[in-house]
Amino acid sequence: MSIVEVRNLVKRYPSFELKEVSFHVDEGRITGFIGRNGAGKTTTIKSMLNLIHPDGGEVDYFGKPLLGNEMEIKKHIGYSTGAVNWYPRKKMRDIVDIVRRFYDTWDEASYRKYLEMFSLDESKSPIELSEGMKVKFNLLLALSHRSEVLILDEPTRGLDPFSRNELLDIFTDLKKDGVAVFFSTHIISDIEKCADDIVYISHGKIVAATTKADFVGQFSRDGETLEDTMLRMERGDIHA
Fold first, then answer.
1. Residue ranges of domains in the chain
2. N or C: where does the chain have the smaller number of CB atoms within 10 Å of the terminal CB?
3. CA 167 – CA 179 distance, rounded (Å)
4. CA distances to 23, 29, 184, 187 from 198, in Å
5. What is the fold of 1-74+179-240?
């Protein structure tokens, strides 16, 4: 079932334009949003969340338009732009105590579940955490208010290979609980490891939005890795 529907999203800047971007994100699946730096990934994500105002198009969550239902919908969305330091010297438990007050959907049992899953010590401060653990802390906060969809902008950026793999494994665990994970990246190995679906954007335009298997079948040549395929397509040669 589609949790997120993006239809004909347009955002114009003097030197860049999103061009009628359309795709969907499904329940219990991991969707990798792939494209080189500057392709439009962050602009798309911010438009999906009304953090910037698109010039056209529609975004629905759970069958409802975001516009007019934003407050209710965002109770069920977890959003992260990677590692955020929050209050670097406050204890995590104190930060959590502040955040939980904003959500009537806060679920203490979920909070304890993911605190243990992510091996986080709530007595520590963000300044004591590695970059990977900061990302996990952001996910902990998102999942503890019963987020049904995670929208993550370059969550593995700046992480060492071990921490990246650990985070991708967490995504795989989350989808078993029915959580939809939508994450942007330009690291193709991340897509190869965990994605079920691929949305590929280039120069502000969606080139493909399909399952990973169908993407490989449609665009890859014999003997190519997914990375080989993407690099060739970025050079303008998109035919298998």
1. 1-74+179-240
2. N
3. 15
4. 10, 11, 10, 13
5. Rossmann fold (3.40.50)
Q: Of the ranges 58-67, 124-133, 155-164, which is most confident? A: 58-67
How many helices (H) and strands (E) the chain has is answered by 9, 10
Place of tokens 């650990």: 166
* H/E stretch holding 233: helix 226-234
Report residue 69 as tokens.
């239902």
User: Contact, 134 vs 126, CB < 8 A?
Assistant: yes
Mapped onto helix, strand or coil, the DSSP state of residue 183 is strand
Q: Which of 3-7, 25-29, 84-88, 167-171 has the lowest mean pLDDT?
A: 84-88
Judge whether 167 and 193 are in contact, CB under 8 Å.
no
- Rounded-to-integer distance, Cα 44 and Cα 152, Å: 12
Count of CB atoms within 10 A of residue 40's CB?
Answer: 25
Structure confidence by residue, pLDDT tens digits, 18-55: 999 999 999 999 999 999 888 999 999 999 999 999 99
